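REQUEST FORM: STRUCTURE PREDICTION
Request ID: SP-0412
Submitted by: Lab K.M.
Chain count: 1
Length (residues): 213
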Amino acid sequence: MRNKFDTQLDTLNNNLIIMGAMCENAIASAVKALMTYNVPLAQATIEAEKQIDEKEREIESLCLKLLLQQQPVARDLRFISAALKMITDMERIGDQAADIAEIVTFIDLSESKNKVNIAEMTEAIIKMVTESIDAFVNRNLGLAKSVIEYDDVVDGYFTRIKKDLIDFISADKQHGEAVLDILMIAKYLERIGDHATNIAEWVVFAITGTHQT
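STATUS: Completed
RESULT:
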């Protein structure tokens, strides 16, 4: 019985890795579409969000089967419960990547985007998403805590981008609408960082039994 349960847990881990990779690709594609004004890529990113939703439902179904059929002990119960919470945050990451891509389909921000460091902020966020999932799969408490701390770095990027955009619009008011769109994109990225932090906090709960807030 335990062997079957462990096999199902491995399947859960693999599916979380896949969903995490889907989220990473969605973030990277949305920002690439922004940086290159690639509308077809933006539209593909929006479509990919549906696949993330499907993967969420698949993982949710697997978690419920584990809970109902295997009657897990306390530690395993925490990991399964944490996975259910994590996929909600991962689904929202997909939503926000799609939101960024949707902005790209409506307006060319190729000039305004060069005024702020969106690319560097994106790299930091993808790092958080990747490491939060790795922390769960490898039961790595230290990595989970480092992801939580790293959110301050992402918040710092967001603060800098806001300042740069204020300077930009002060110098050239005709780009006001574009500045607001860039600010919205930066806010979506900042929220993705928050969701990665939430995932890492659920990893801490799964390992320790304490939910860090």
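NOTES: DSSP finds six helices and no strands in the chain.
Reviewed by: T.R.
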